[in-house]
Design goal:
By secondary structure, the chain is mostly beta strands. 10% of the residues lie in helices and 30% in strands. Helix 1 (12-33) runs antiparallel to helix 2.
């Protein structure tokens, strides 16, 4: 075995002391050569005369022992390649090659290597796992750890104490109660990990086409124990039907979820179909404006649409997702001139997307509740300006007027409202 390169400095006083001890031993040797050996231990047995060779061995051992207290005391023994590991050594169980632990062909210990904490309740070893493909008998896990106070959980039916899965390295949490700022807290963790910095990963799992990480519990399968945040990246373009938009191009598992390149979330139903998740919230998917004023339009030519209120009855929307806009407008319409009906419409970027004609031909000063609704396809990131517009159903004289808004009651006229509801439609 190669010696450690570490060495201890030898102080001058230690060397002098050793020299004196060797000289004293030599003097004793010369004295002992001429005197019989008596009862050295006081046990009533005479060992007889010893040879010079024996005495030289004694002197050499004494000198080596004294020197070793300095030379070897500063250089701990190291378990290097080909040597056994030594318990209690934290810095010198080193090696330049991989250390292997392999079961014999005739045995299948499970686990192959085991670490248990204080107060662990047995059993801690388990029968080998039978496989229908070679090897037919397998050491699962290869490495097992059971925390202090822990025990193997009951697995299967009928229940048998066993490690919970089929991974080569498995841990079973122990039982501990720790003091916290809010009082005692019971803890038991099977596997722990920690990663540092904003890109650190505490626990990582990867698979080719299967599951990267799986959690199962009789309670909560997956929980966020820190800030409560969950990050889900989008699918790659090759997995989307119209990149960056979805839906996903592959058939899903039941109850799967995924996001497209626009961040839109999809859920799968039983039977393998994708459904986009509808976003909610005022000024996210629901937009609405309202006015309690009364409006008048005089001398309409019956053809040109005019803004009812270009300031207060207008929506400006930039959808965050591809969608269908359900647009609606309502007003109480009436005329002061017999023979005129009132048309109300919804204009999108200057073009009428839907309209409705209101009655009033046979009467005057008789408000009629008018409601118009239409659908418009809208694209993510595009600006849409939506307004209420109106006109007469035929040309009106220069002094003929139609109105919107009944009342007033308590100083306010009946509401005129414009609303847009955005429904996800990738």
């Amino acid at each position: 075995m190669a010696r450690s390169t570490k060495s201890a400095s030898r102080r001058p006083d230690d060397v002098a002391r050793l020299t004196a001890e060797v000289e004293a031993l030599q003097a004793r040797l010369e004295k002992l050569e001429g005197a019989p050996m008596g009862n050295l231990h006081g046990n009533g047995h005479d060992h007889g005369r010893q040879s010079r060779r024996d005495l030289l061995k004694l002197a050499g051992a004494a000198a080596a022992g004294a020197a070793g207290s300095i030379v070897l005391g500063a250089v701990p023994a190291a378990a290097t390649s080909g040597q056994p590991l030594v318990l209690g050594i934290t810095t010198t169980n080193d090696s330049s090659v991989t250390t292997g632990i392999v079961p014999t062909t005739s045995t299948t210990p499970s686990p192959l290597f085991e670490a248990v904490g204080q107060g662990v309740i047995g059993p801690t070893t388990v029968p080998p796992t039978a496989s229908t493909t070679p090897p037919l008998s397998q050491s699962i896990p290869l490495i097992g750890a059971i925390g202090p106070g822990g025990s193997l959980p009951p697995i299967g039916s009928p229940a048998v104490n066993d490690f919970p899965g089929f991974a080569p390295i498995q841990g079973v949490g122990g039982q501990a109660t720790i003091a916290t700022s809010t009082g005692p807290e019971f803890v038991s963790e099977g596997v722990g990990g920690f990663g540092t910095s904003s890109t650190g990963i505490g626990v990582a799992g990867d698979s080719d086409v299967g599951y990267g990480v799986v959690g199962s519990s009789g309670g909560i399968d997956l929980a966020t124990g820190g800030a409560g945040r969950i990050l889900q990246l989008s699918l790659t373009n090759d997995l989307l039907t119209s990149p960056p938009a979805g839906p996903p191009s592959y058939g899903p598992n039941d109850f799967e979820q995924a996001r497209d390149g626009n961040g839109l979330l999809y859920l799968s139903l039983i039977g393998g179909s994708w459904i986009p998740v509808q976003f909610g919230g005022l000024n996210q998917s629901l937009f609405s404006v309202v006015s309690f004023q009364q409006y008048a339009l005089t001398g309409s030519n019956g053809t040109a649409w005019a803004d009812m209120d270009a300031t207060n009855l207008k929506l400006s929307i930039i959808p965050l997702f591809d969608c269908v806009g359900l647009l609606s407008a309502n007003a109480d319409l009436w005329t002061a001139a017999a023979g005129l009906n009132q048309d109300i419409g919804i204009a999108v970027n200057g073009a009428i997307a839907g309209w409705k004609e209101s009655g009033g031909f046979a009467g005057t000063f008789s408000p009629n509740a008018a409601f118009v609704q239409t659908l418009v396809q809208m694209t993510r990131g595009t600006t849409y300006t939506i307004k209420i517009q109106w006109k007469t159903n035929k040309p009106a004289a220069a002094n003929q007027t139609i109105y919107a808004g009944a009342g007033p009651i308590s100083g306010s006229f009946s509401p005129t409202r414009l609303t847009a509801q955005l429904c996800v439609n990738p």
